[in-house]
Design goal:
It comes from Halioglobus maricola. The chain is α+β, with helices and mostly antiparallel strands. It has a single domain, classed as Glutaredoxin, CATH 3.40.30.10. The protein has a 4-stranded mixed β-sheet. α3 runs parallel beside α5. It is flat, with a radius of gyration of 15 Å. Bound molecules: glutathione. Glutathione binds next to α5.
């Protein structure tokens, strides 16, 4: 089972690499504005999770520079996710508001809708 999961994970990463989406190009000022907004977002994820790959592809397509934290590799990230979001499930998007209060959004579909609704261009 572990081997199958490992092989599937590698396959997902290979396909993601082979069919990497193209990023939209914004003018530098518009990109800087978006970068400032995405600075308050963090994606808790792990590399070979297919749902995380889906979210990362949306980020790539929309040229969203969002910090990612790998909950498989980082104990600190795992603790943050569990303490903040309440669930050790990925992907999870942490959205900090202007008062630094965090909202934790699970479900890849919901995260993608949120990112596209807020930032989509083209
Ligand atoms: N419906 C969820 C599925 C997410 C999911 O199953 N993630 C797996 C990793 S690929 C996970 O975190 N599993 C741990 C758990 O469910 O506790 C989504 O679309 O985001």
């Amino acid at each position: 089972m572990r081997i199958i999961r490992l092989v599937l994970g590698k396959l997902i990463l290979f396909l993601n690499w082979a069919f990497t989406p193209k990023s939209i190009a914004r003018d530098p000022l518009a990109q800087a504005t978006i970068d400032e907004q995405t600075g308050s977002l963090t994606l808790y994820q792990y590399e070979a999770c297919p749902f995380c790959v889906k979210v990362r592809r949306t980020m790539k397509r929309q040229a969203l520079n969002i910090e990612t934290r790998d909950v498989k590799r980082s104990e600190k990230a795992r603790e943050e996710l569990l303490a903040g979001g309440g669930n050790l499930k990925v992907p999870c998007l942490r959205i900090k508001d202007s008062e630094q209060k965090s909202r934790w959004m699970y479900e890849s579909g919901e995260i993608i809708d949120y990112l596209e609704g807020r930032f989509a261009a083209g």
